[in-house]
Amino acid sequence: MGSMGNEEMAFGAFHLSVRHRTLSDPHGWISLKSRAFDVLLTLIESRARVVSKTELMRRVWGDLVVEENNLHVQVAAVRRALGESARYIQTIPGRGYRFVGPLKAADEPPTTNLPARMTPLIGRRQELAAVAHLLERTRLVTLTGPSGVGKTRLAVEAARSLRERFPAGCWWAALGSVTDAGLALRAVAASLRTDEIQGKPLNEGLAEVLGRGRVLLVLDGCERVAAAVAALVGELQGRCPGLKVLCTSHVRLGLAGERVRRVTPLVSMALAPRVAAVRPGAGRSFAQPAWEGDVLAGDAAAEPAATQRPPRPSSRAPAERAGL
User: What are the tens digits of pLDDT across the range 112-143?
Assistant: First the structure.
């Protein structure tokens, strides 16, 4: 693919990075596969004219022989990514496609890749406030709890609500599928696209992006590679004085200064009457789960560290474990 001269371009609410091959809007990065990105980039480069289907296919697929339907699929993918702004890609019947609309150079790269909000977060207002308060007081906060309890959703919404406090960046990396500690660094770099910075080691690229000022890094699902994540967080925070980290994990990382909050399940509507009957004096709403107290790293008795074996499940009856 060619170059537009400017590596960072903007149109409407969108930001396109030629260097990192990313498309983003104010809500974060937009998923766009390689061929679709090449279609968009080709149309932007040739925005002064109509690009024929033949030329588009040659520019995007090179010497490969592909059916015209493949081009239609990629153009449709671009339009889906642009959503209501799909009008930027205009079809010229019998001739091809053209990019329309104002385009300008953008000096500032995108500063977030947070996942898009899918559904509202209900019943976690106190927890969101607690996470925000902890991140004001310390540089590392870990949300712990079993799988499925809502740690990820809570971390996403907390990060989203705090974006204004971190003008230099609010970044997200999912580590739940990483089982090899040696791949933890690569997974984080790939999530932030710093692995595409040429000529620099992965940790150097991360430090460059995360060291630009007040930055929040969210690391989701750290439990399988907790020790490697702890080492990486320690290195990055040592090199990036404005960096704060929010982790989700089954266990704490065990770093000095770490604050740990355990996320508990929301009590369901069906159980609410039974909870009220057993504990009539409870002032907490069924939609507001109890939080354990803050746990400082080093308090091994309160929360298992990454190097410790988690406590065995309680042998008490289910009703007793639920507090019924």
Answer: 888 876 567 788 899 999 999 999 999 999 99
Give the β-pairing of 140-144 and 259-262: parallel
Position 176 pLDDT exceeds 70: yes
Q: Is the dihedral angle over the CA atoms 298, 303, 305, 311 positive or is it negative?
A: positive
Single out the residue of 318, 186, 313 nearest to residue 250, CA to CA. Answer: 313
Average of per-residue pLDDT values in the chain: 81
SS (H, E, C) 98-153: EECCCCEECCCCCCECCCCCCCCCCCCHHHHHHHHHHHHHCCEEEEECCCCCCHHH
For residues 108 and 106, what is the distance between their CA atoms, to the nearest angstrom? Answer: 6
> Which domains does the chain possess?
8-105 (1.10.10.10), 125-321 (3.40.50.300)
CB 8 within 8 A of CB 17: yes
Backbone dihedral angles phi then psi of residue 153, each to the nearest 5 degrees: -60, -40
Structure tokens at 66: 């592909």
CA distance 275 to 148: 22
Calpha distance 78→39 (Å, rounded):
8
- The three-state secondary structure class of 164 is helix
Which residues, at least 6 apart from 120, have a Cβ–Cβ distance to it below 8 Å? none
Q: What is the CA radius of gyration of the chain?
A: 24
pLDDT of residue 276: 44
* Confidence (pLDDT) at 57: 95
**Mean pLDDT score, 89-99:** 94
Q: Report CA torsion sign: 34, 38, 44, 50.
A: negative
